[in-house]
Amino acid sequence: MPKIIKIGPSTKYVGKTLWEILGNLRNLGVGRIVRRSIYERYPEPTYYRILKVDTLPPPQKTDDARKVRAYTERVFRGRKFEKIYEICQESWAPDFTLVPKSEEKALLEKAEASVYLNKKTVPKTISFPPLLKELIIQDRKARGLPVDEEPRMKLVIREEEDQLYRITQDGEAPSVNYDGGKGTPKTPQLYEIPQLFKEKLNLS
């Protein structure tokens, strides 16, 4: 068997451009489902159902000749979005694949059974990193403030359309808890407070 030698940089793209697919389908692929290889890393399905395809003005650059504007119904990690999603700027990427009609039903059923159909809830506050927590406690002691309660920081989540998490409301129990900690690191000595810091903070 001949030895295969790969030459040149590797690529994360696996597939075809969107226009290569839609341009070879009846009615420009309206009603068909396409996927992107960059989202195959998620266990939940991500796909786009083509609703409408528009032509673009004559291209000014070579890369623009590979673009197309498609209006789609978007499902990201099992969550269906009501807003129509436009694919245009990323349509040049050669990582689109057409879902065969024989596989569409299984894909839709997998999306409906996805655990990400509902957003996960996280607590309003989480613990500070260990060293920072000790610094805060020592600072409170130096200023004569009470240190009975553990210092905690407010958790902030950036609001995005495809956000899968949200902050818990009053009286609501979070579905995901983060207790901090370092787990089981390969080099635990790097996470220990050096003796010099212990002496300065009077922790020894």
Structure characterization notes:
The protein has helices at residues 18-22, 101-112, 130-142, 195-200; strands at residues 33-36, 47-54, 69-76, 79-80, 85-87, 96-98, 120-122, 125-127, 152-154, 165-167. It has 204 residues and is of the alpha+beta class. The strands form three sheets. Strands 1, 2, 3, 4, 5 and 6 form a six-stranded antiparallel beta sheet that branches. Strands 7-10 form a two-stranded parallel sheet. The radius of gyration is 26 Å and the shape is elongated. The model has no long low-confidence stretch (mean pLDDT 82).
What's the short version?
The chain is of the alpha+beta class. The chain has helices at 18-22, 101-112, 130-142, 195-200, and strands spanning 33-36, 47-54, 69-76, 79-80, 85-87, 96-98, 120-122, 125-127, 152-154, 165-167. The radius of gyration is 26 Å and the shape is elongated.
Sequence of secondary-structure elements: HEEEEEEHEEHEEH
What is the helical fraction, as a range of percent?
10-25%
Count of β-strands = 10
Largest sheet: number of strands, sense, barrel closure? 6 strands, antiparallel
Mean of pLDDT: 82
What is the gyration radius calculated from CA atoms?
26 Å
Number of helices: 4
Structural class: alpha+beta
Strand content: 15-25%
End-to-end separation in angstroms reads: 65 Å
Low-confidence parts: none
Global morphology: elongated
